[in-house]
Amino acid sequence: MIQYKKVAFYTLGCKLNFSETSTISRLFEDAGVAKVEFEEKPDIYVINTCSVTENADRKCKQLVKKALKINPDAFIAIIGCFAQLKPVEIGKIPGVDLVLGANEKFNILEHLDQIEQKNEVAKVDFDNIKNTKEFVPAFSYGDRTRSFLKVQDGCDYFCTFCTIPLARGKSRNASIESTIKEAEKIAEMEIKEVVLTGVNIGDFGQGSDENFFKLVKELDNVKGIDRYRISSIEPNLLSNEIIQFTLSESKRFVPHFHIPLQSGSNRVLKTMRRKYVRELYAERVKYIKSLRLDCCIGVDVIVGFPGETDEEFMETIDFLKDLDVSYLHVFTYSERANTTAVKLGEAVPMDVRRERSKMLHILSDKKKRAFYEENKGTSRSVLFEHEEDNGIMYGFTENYIKVKVPYNSELTNTFQTVHLDEIDRDGIMKCTILQTVEK
To answer: How far is the C-alpha of 387 from the C-alpha of 411, rounded, in Å?
Structure first.
């Protein structure tokens, strides 16, 4: 094995990728390799890729080029979803030495042991992920006041626009008992907040007598973790019992849900092969708000799906206008190889996609500001981050309102009771600290 002393990581994509990168970085640290920043001239770069990211190929090439500019002799390994989908193409990128698919990325040290020097031809190792049953636990640590805990991987849904099942395989997870043990490891690390993450976390336990609701109840009993957030959960899997427990009975789950919608048109939802209709989505939102008016609800929306008409896009706009949600994550549809969406309707011109995206971003800003206004003047518990930004530090309330105060290092990774004063022009809530909950 080449003698590496320093390794740097770059992660593209979702919270799940961040949890896995962090776990892989600990493998290097346990082997005596120091983790450094991208610009600190490491001996090896590990780039964790995403298949959802637009222009994934271009982004991957840019990062390799940037890495080689910093250290022309660096060993470069590409892992993750895009590496699983396009391993041969990535292996041909100048400077790439190792490409590992979904099954092999956690075995990266073993692969490095087998490589004696940089080669002109990259080593590419990937298996057909389709039928894998292996679940590798992961959680992030060290770079935030919160941890992303991977509780599930893969997906059985095969939405027509999505490559994730091809990149990560079928839905799978560890047992509740094993997952609790991972949470207990996090609890020992002075991390205050845990975000539950996966590809389709509501599908936890499918095919067994365990399920996501049972997992949530068990996690709620883990001492040493103050807050849990559910990163994203399908509306058809977000049951009333999960909503009821997390909002009315839980000691640790916060009033915040992120629920993908994708479209407000039932015809488009059917074409996307989503497993719900808009009426069910509205029911979920209504039930959440009946229990906690202050609950934050985030929404994923895709614009410009093939065949989406102006009328159907306006259905989405009108549906969201009337829906009591707090913010939108807007995705502009882009064509993906090996998906069926491209065959399902006439392509929406790119300028139309951009215009629709702009309209939804404006609506999102209005929704977010309205939610912040509803909460202005109330007292909230805030967990403060460690980053400093020109003398300012930030934190989030339990219901996901971002706040700002003058920087004070003693506030880092602590809970404070604050009064929400006013919304700044940058859309962040100014606040006054009322009481130190924890030092």
So the answer is: 11
